[in-house]
Design brief:
By secondary structure, the protein is mainly α. The chain contains seven helices and no strands. The chain is about 75% helix and about 0% strand. α1 packs antiparallel against α2 and α3 runs antiparallel to α4. The longest helix is centred in the N-terminal third of the chain and has 24 residues. It starts with a helix and ends with a helix.
Length: about 150
């Protein structure tokens, strides 16, 4: 994952794509920050799964920022945030559709043997292990709750 991002940064710099270059540098900085935090806590170095979590968090932050900019009539800044989202999503696995998410939730519920809301944590944990970066866990949580309730 790191190599893929570094390669994309080199390409963006050569192409003089300022937006892509700055966004890729932000991604690398976030990964580096997580590396430092892991080192300080005595944890293993950042894995590809950690990178996917970082990228997912970055997308959510930018979606929220874009929404706030639109509410504040700053459409230029909202567009900038949306451009960054597209660049970050290039490195994330393709998101599952709503139907595929529901199917995955049903499958995990049956595999875990969940029979009530008290098993929701186990279901969500299994989903996060299998589908990191591929689904919106907020939506998935609602689907699991609906299916278990």
């Amino acid at each position: 994952m790191r190599e893929k991002i570094a390669e994309a940064l080199k390409t963006a710099v050569k192409a003089q794509d300022k937006r892509r270059t700055s966004t890729l540098r932000l991604i690398q900085a976030a990964i580096h920050d997580r590396d430092i935090a892991h080192r300080g806590a005595g944890k293993d170095p950042v894995t590809d799964d950690d990178v996917l979590q970082i990228l997912g968090k970055m997308v959510k932050q930018r979606e929220e920022s874009a929404r706030l900019f639109e509410e504040g009539s700053r459409l230029d800044l909202a567009e900038q945030e949306r451009d960054e989202i597209e660049i970050i999503r290039d490195f994330l696995p393709r998101q599952l559709s709503d139907d595929a998410t529901k199917t995955a939730c049903q499958q995990v519920i049956s595999e875990v043997g969940a029979d009530g809301l008290r098993d929701m944590g186990r279901c969500m944990s299994a989903l996060k292990q299998r589908y990191t970066g591929q689904m919106d866990f907020g939506k998935a949580s609602g689907i699991v709750k609906e299916l278990l309730g």
